[in-house]
């Protein structure tokens, strides 16, 4: 358990907090910052479980979501902000549950980016089911498409607030479900 810590990663391809291969990692009351390119703030890798409570997570690098999930992630009462990336990416086989969280993700300062790649949350797209459940969460300053639901993805929403500035709310692919 990391409690009341400052955790940071500055290099490219380096997540600030990672859980994988059967490990369970919990952080609470902490600040997490990742500034490198392709460097998630918190990452639940294949087989890992990550629990994040009452913490703030910020990423500043290109293609650096604040949350990247292929394992399992549980978060409550957190603030997640991606300055130059999607906020959340849940990959095939991943499961993420967020409760009472504030989220923002932008693709500002991007050049030559295809408009179809601009979204705040990406779920699924592979052969295994990927799921994201959001309860009592708030999205701030959403300027791009909000949810991109790939093949075999499940999205559960309850009491969600969105500060919307443009784009589409949902973009669904084959076998995607929202409940």
Describe it for me?
With about 180 residues, the chain is mainly β. Helix content is about 0%, strand content about 50%. It is built from no helices and 22 strands. Strands 1-4-7-10-13-16-19-22 form an eight-stranded parallel β-sheet, with no helix packed on it. The protein has a seven-stranded parallel β-sheet with strand order 2-5-8-11-14-17-20, with no helix packed on it. It has a seven-stranded parallel β-sheet with strand order 3-6-9-12-15-18-21, with no helix packed on it. Mean pLDDT is about 85; it is low at about 110-120.
Sheet/helix structural class? mainly beta
The largest beta-sheet arranges its strands as: 1-4-7-10-13-16-19-22
What value does the average pLDDT take?
Answer: 84
Could you state the order of secondary-structure elements as H and E?
Answer: EEEEEEEEEEEEEEEEEEEEEE
Spatial separation of the terminal alpha carbons? 33 Å
Beta-strand portion reads over 45%
The rough form would be described as globular
Radius of gyration: 15 Å
- The helix content, as a percent range, equals under 10%
Q: Treating each run of at least 4 consecutive H or I residues as one helix, how many helices?
A: 0
The biggest beta sheet is recorded as: 8 strands, parallel
The count of strands amounts to 22
Low-confidence stretches: 109-118
């Amino acid at each position: 358990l990391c409690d009341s810590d400052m955790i940071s990663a500055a290099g490219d391809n380096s997540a600030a907090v990672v859980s994988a291969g059967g490990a369970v990692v919990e952080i609470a009351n902490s600040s997490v910052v990742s500034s490198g390119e392709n460097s998630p703030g918190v990452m639940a890798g294949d087989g890992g479980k990550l629990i994040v409570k009452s913490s703030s997570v910020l990423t500043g690098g290109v293609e650096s979501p604040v949350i990247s999930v292929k394992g399992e992630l549980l978060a409550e009462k957190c603030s997640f902000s991606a300055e130059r990336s999607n906020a959340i990416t849940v990959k095939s086989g991943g499961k993420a549950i967020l409760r009472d969280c504030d989220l923002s993700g932008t693709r500002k300062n991007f050049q030559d980016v295809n408009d179809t790649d601009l979204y705040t949350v990406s779920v699924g797209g592979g052969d295994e089911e990927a799921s994201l459940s959001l309860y009592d969460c708030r999205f701030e300053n959403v300027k791009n498409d909000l949810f991109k639901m790939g093949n075999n993805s499940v999205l559960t929403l309850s009491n969600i607030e969105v500060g919307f500035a443009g784009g589409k709310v949902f973009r669904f692919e084959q076998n995607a479900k929202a409940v």
